[in-house]
Amino acid sequence: SIGYVPQEHKPPFPYRVLDFVLLGRTPHMGIFSSPSDEDRMIALESLRAVGIEHFADRAYTELSGGERQLVLLARALATNSKILLLDEPTAHLDFRNAHKVLATIKRIVKERSLSAVMTLHDPNLAYRYADRIALISKRRILKVGLPHEIITESLLKEVYEVDVKVMVFDGLRFAFVEGIL
């Protein structure tokens, strides 16, 4: 099975965070079953793994965008899937929360020996957090490889159709639209 994290989610009801994460256990329950003690334990552990167990009794609708993304990640973890599919997990997030969400994903993937496939539009985030990158443009895969093989001026120019400069600052590679610096 695959644990899915959508780009964004607007809940129709003010679910408690714990109840929302418990929805990830639905495939493991019978048709008219209620969550078991084991399901609740798995949901709480998923919240703990993401570092947001203190949100368990809060309304999901009252959380910030970054906090909601972490709850969506916890729900995906509660499925006990070995593969996570994440659709732009940093969309609409500020600088801090984008890094927090991706660092959390990377840590959990490593700790639990999971695989994660995600879409990202920021080459700098992809370079920093991805182990491998598939660069896609116009519905085709241009190249697959290690971050330093993919985040290049020529490939990024081909995809984004702007002049791109890739530079190294303090040992980290950064891509930016040429003329900005």
Task: Characterise the protein shown here.
The chain has 181 residues and is an alpha/beta fold. It has helices at residues 17-22, 37-50, 65-78, 95-112, 123-129, 147-150, 153-160, and strands at 2-5, 83-86, 115-118, 133-137, 140-145, 164-169, 172-177. It has a domain at 2-119: 3-Layer(aba) Sandwich (Rossmann fold), CATH 3.40.50. It contains 7 helices and 7 strands; from the N terminus they run E-H-H-H-E-H-E-H-E-E-H-H-E-E. The strands form 3 sheets. The chain has a 3-stranded parallel sheet, covered by helices on one side. The protein is elongated and about 55 Å long. The N and C termini lie far apart (45 Å). 29% of the residues are buried.
Quick recap:
The protein is α/β, with parallel strands linked by helices and 181 residues long.
Strand content: 15-25%
Task: Tell me the overall shape.
Answer: elongated
CATH architecture of the domain at 2-119: 3-Layer(aba) Sandwich
DSSP summary, beta strand count? 7
Q: Structural class of the helices, strands and pairings?
A: alpha/beta
The largest sheet is: 3 strands, parallel
Q: Give the strand line-up of the largest sheet.
A: 1-2-3
The N- and C-terminal alpha carbons lie at a distance of 45 Å
Average the pLDDT over all residues and give the rounded result: 94
**Helix proportion of residues, in percent?**
25-40%
- According to CATH, what is the class of the domain at 2-119? Alpha Beta
Low-pLDDT stretches: none
Output the helix-strand order.
EHHHEHEHEEHHEE
CATH topology group of the domain at 2-119 = Rossmann fold
**How large is the count of helical segments?**
7
The radius of gyration is 18 Å
Quick one: CATH superfamily of the domain at 2-119?
P-loop containing nucleotide triphosphate hydrolases
